[in-house]
Amino acid sequence: MQNTNFNGSVIIRRMFKQRYGRIKKRNFVVLAICLVAVLLPVLILYLFSTERVESGNIADFSISDHSSRKVVQGLGYDIVAVDDGNLINNNSFEPMVYKQNLIVDSGNDEIIKVAMPNDPTTRIFTENFFVDANAEVFATDSEGRRALKKSGKVSQYLSDQIDDFQPVSLPPDLPSNIRWKSIVESGEKVILGGSKGYILSIDSFSSTSLSRLPSEEEVIGVCVFDDLFLALDENGGFYKSSDSLKWELVFQINDKFLLTKSEDNLEENTEASTSRTDDVVTSTDKTDVAETLINKINDTETSTSKTDSFAISTGKTDVEIGAEPSENIKWLDLSSRIDEQGNSIFMAVGEAGFVLYGNLEKNDTKRLVTSQNINAVTSNSDGFYLVGDNSLAFYSYDGENYRYLDIPQKANWQAVSSRGHQVMIAGDQGQVVFSKDGYSFDSLNNETLSELSLQHTEQNHDDQEVIVIKPHFVSCSILSNNQFILLDSRGISFYSDNFGETWKNFSNLATSKFNLVQRLPSGRLLMTGLDGGIEYAIMGLVIKLDSKLEQGTYENGDLLVLEQISTTPIIQPKIEESETLIGDWYISNPSAVQIQLNHNAPDGGRAALEIDLSRKSNSENELTGLFSQQIIEHQIPQNAGLIIQQKLEDTAYTNIKNNTIFSFEFWAKFDSDDSANLNLSFEGLNLQIEQFNKNISGDWEKYQGFFVIPKNSLREDKSLWLRIELNGSGKLYLDNLWFGAADNSGKNILANLSDDFSKGSILRLDFVPIGSKEYHSESWLSSEKYYSSYYQDKKGIKLQGQANLAKSMELCNSFNANPWLLIDSQASDSELKNLMQYLFGQQSTPLGELRTVHGALSRYSDIFNQIYIEIGDQNGLLENDWQRKSYVNWVVQILSETPEYAQVKKNLIFVDGMQYKDNIILSDADYHASDFNLDSRINNLTDLKQFNKNFTESLPRDPRRGTATRSELIRQTNQNFEEIRLADVIATALSMMGDEIDATLLNLDLTSDSMTNPYAHCYGNIGKAISDMNPYTLTSGIKQDNVSAYAYGSGNRRVIVLVNFSEMSSSCQIFNIDLKGFRQSIYDAKGAVLEQSKVRHRKSVYSLLPGGVIVLEGTLEKNK
Predict the structure, then answer these.
(1) Which residues lie below 8 Å from residue 921, measured CB to CB, with a gap of 6+?
(2) For the chain, does the N or the C end have fewer beta carbons within 10 angstroms?
(3) How many other CB atoms are there within 10 angstroms of residue 1082's CB atom?
(4) pLDDT tens per residue across span 699-747
(5) 526/530 Cα distance (integer angstroms)
(6) CATH number for the domain that contains residue 734
(7) Do residues 786 and 904 share a domain?
(8) pLDDT at site 902
(9) CA angle at residue 72 from 67 to 77, to 5 degrees?
């Protein structure tokens, strides 16, 4: 066999030689040299390309050998909202809180005097609202540090208390014998219109300017309209000005009559005024005003908020209705208002029943079917009030429709004034009427008016004594606390401080006779004299506490803080007819139910619902809102007990679709020897479910039960209501109701936290109110449960959550994250001291014991390495940078002086959260906090550098550190555009980390109806990984603009983050570090995790998706 093979090979060699001849060795040498010459460059290029691939889509990086000395604190979350899975709102029946912050002007050891605040919210409070309110008075030193001077209860609260009058310095070029006719105030400016077309402007009561209308006619009215001033002269010249100095004619009212087509337009006007009528009523009264046909307007008219509206038409012909005024018709007054839609409307009134109403673009002139003069007009939030001769008195919401005012006296009415809903009208024979609501009027006439008038006799031209029994009033004004001021044609003042029961002369506070008086929104009382002089008094609050100061007096600059609670809103909530107030409880007999503060469940809160079961449901099918007082039609079963029910929100639908078993929990007690029955049911399901029943007896006890709601039981066409029916006889108390998925029962604010949620290194507890004006003082202590309650201001009413601090710290512990607390600008020193004891006090202290009751295992300094305390002004109370800096320093000082501070000062980080207008920070805090606002996409490294530059320039400078900025923390990352990508979020968070910034937080909403931020997983993983690490520098070997890289390390531990800004996939490699065995997490632009695996090779090229991120974590070998 071997011979055969050998012979074969010999034969093949012979055949090759015969065909090609003998090949010489030098040929092989040449061939080898040629192959080497060709392959060597290819091999070099290959080897070079494995280390460095020079392409537009590939970036390489080298990591520095040494790190920065600075330690970063990582990435975390700003938790903006939480809930406990409760599908019931307003579950604890908590009262609303209202606060005032006032600067003391003067006082003694008992009385506190405060200038009337120039704040519209002040006027929403009733006169005695703050009596029995909690009060604290703080002295403030030159550095802005506060010291508690006095605390107690308010025993007296008197507003509009008149101080001494002061003259206004008038311009030297003001002619003599000028008489002022109208006043208006806007911001810091007051303008007055008077005779000969003169207009006086008073700026901040420190300087005056004089201007004049081009017509030089008497100015009978001035008003504010949007951002303009309007003025009207007696001949109908309508003028506007933006600065009250230069006046421009808008139109001449009489010109509008000349342009009117007598027949067609008048018929059209008449039809418009009578088109929406139900019936016609003919009056038998013989006055000109009443010789009309009164058309009752539909109840759907806007003006029916006061009473039924009436359109004024006439029995005369259309031509007679619209008869042109004579050439010498005079206009007599002007007023303006803003309606519920925010639209400005003006109204002018004049002789012979003529009115002008509308705005500068569209306005109408009409005659109110009377030959009587309309002498005056005023306005408030309800509408316009017009009064005139021969008992003429009308109300109009919008100038289109009018109704008669029901006034118990007849008079030639000369003046009208309003304040809030109150209206006062004065006549030419001593008649005065007043209404608290603008609807029902009472007479204020009594003998003291005539007696006071008789005291002021005058001499006529023949030196004969003139006796006036019934004064001719020309001006009036309403002050708070039952105070009124009237002026008559002689310039005599009439003043009452007891609701008109007695009157006295007011001139002892002034030096002249007056013709015009008006209370200004800024809290001043302005009066103009018959000689053209002007005087004003700064009105103020006079407040007494329940005891005197033990030493010293109340002084100028002291801070007075008032806090009052109310079980009902002080302003009636505005609700659309087809809607209900979110979270309100609707009652079948509202007289049987009230919120009271004397009994509350052990679980916490300040109030409970008291129900008198001796009062059953009303017979009508109506429910009344507990807070809103809204009445809705609703079917009530026959023989039903007392019903309270709440409309559930969309969150309930989602929960029922995703769950089957539900829990209902509540606390209750019953003040009777018998028991009461509570039955829970639902309206709006298409299937009958087993009802929940509990018998209630004895003292406070927690009741709980479970039931099933099938997922297919929901109806899309009907609202879902939770109904509680109560039967028994006696008083029942309910508190802390909870209804939700059984899995969430008892989880408190952790209800919506999934087990696989990525944990950050810091949690900012934005939802825990400390020092907030919207919550009770120390509300974070008030309950160990989460609950929701109402807050109301001039903007409206809203539901807000209240979380206990201990449960919130438990949330941080579950994240294994350090807590970040916020102290707002309403905090008192007692609240700050109690905060420190609650957080860090020994268990033997009162608040340390309460902390344990709330479920805390130990002091929080034993649980967390660091606790951030941010001091800010979300309340918007501090007016300038000095106040902001001083407040931060004061809070730091109070906290630092507590007994607990010495033991925990290494754990505390003070953060200045103020926004400084002058961009200078001088507080004693360790850090300053700012926000990231992502307004547009980061397309490349150039965009990122520009973002960083803009942000750095916005940071406040610390003059004590030269041009350097203080270390910054980012408390929020606001994503302000929809197309944002993970790359934008991560790159901005890390690009300045370790330089200007030490930590960055991402906004996160943990409420059950909120979608989790899609970038939270990547953000949290990076945050935990880099916490307490040092930054490393990464440099790129080639010039590129698409990929950025960040590295952090501690010991041999390394974290590397790669970010791709471009719209295309990019590749990246790090060639001077062995990443084999590192864990890599690959994310797309939307934050989804696409892959998590181990790096298999020492040298790897990483592919980054457009807008995507790769995170590499691992430990280097010790010799690396």
Answers:
(1) 885, 912, 914, 928, 956, 957, 958, 966
(2) N
(3) 19
(4) 999 999 998 998 888 888 889 999 999 999 999 999 999 999 998 887 7
(5) 14
(6) 2.60.120.260
(7) yes
(8) 95
(9) 150
Query: Per the domain annotation, does 221 fall within a domain?
Result: no
* pTM of the predicted structure, to 2 decimals: 0.80
CA angle 809, 904, 864 (to 5 degrees): 35
Mean pLDDT of 78-94: 92
Are 601 and 652 in the same domain? yes
Rounded Cα–Cα distance for residues 481 and 127 (Å):
6
CB 69 within 8 A of CB 1032: no
User: How far, in Å, CA of 649 to CA of 508, rounded?
Assistant: 61
974-990 pLDDT per residue, tens? 998 889 999 999 999 99
Domain C-terminal end among 343, 375, 405? 405
**What 3-state DSSP class applies to 47?**
helix
What's residue 1008's pLDDT? 72
- Give the model's pLDDT for residue 38: 63
Using DSSP bridges, classify how beta strands 997-1006 and 968-975 pair: parallel, antiparallel or unpaired.
parallel
Let me know: does 322 contact 262? Beta carbons within 8 Å: yes
Nearest one of 105, 80, 104 to 765, comparing CA atoms? 80
Structural domain that includes position 425 = 408-505
Amino acid letter at 678? L
Q: What is the 3-state secondary structure (H, E, C) of 222-242?
A: EEEECCEEEEEECCCEEEEEC
CB atoms within 10 A of CB 273: 21
Rounded (5°) CA angle 297-302-304 = 60
Q: For residue range 269-279, what is the model confidence (pLDDT) as tens digits?
A: 333 333 333 33
pLDDT at 281 over 50: no
Sheet containing strand 1034-1036, edge to edge, reads 1034-1036, 58-63, 1066-1070, 1102-1104
Contacts of 605 (CB under 8 A, 6+ apart): 92, 93, 94, 735, 736, 782, 783, 785, 787
Helix (H) or strand (E) holding 736: strand 731-741
Domain count, the chain: 6
Residue 316 and residue 444 share a domain: no
Q: Is residue 230 part of a domain?
A: no
Buried b (16+ CB within 10 A) or exposed e, 383-401: bbbbbbbbbbbbbbbbbbb
**Strands across the sheet with 354-358, in order?**
331-338, 344-350, 354-358, 363-367
Q: Which amino acid is at 231?
A: A
pLDDT at 755: 67
Distances (CA, A) of 73 to 763, 911, 969, 1029, 1030: 12, 14, 9, 8, 9
Distance CA(889)–CA(928), nearest Å, equals 13
Query: Amino acid identity, residue 1091?
Result: E
DSSP conformation letters of 867-905: EEEEE--TT----SHHHHHHHHHHHHHHHHTSTTHHHHT
The Cα 820–Cα 80 span in angstroms is 12
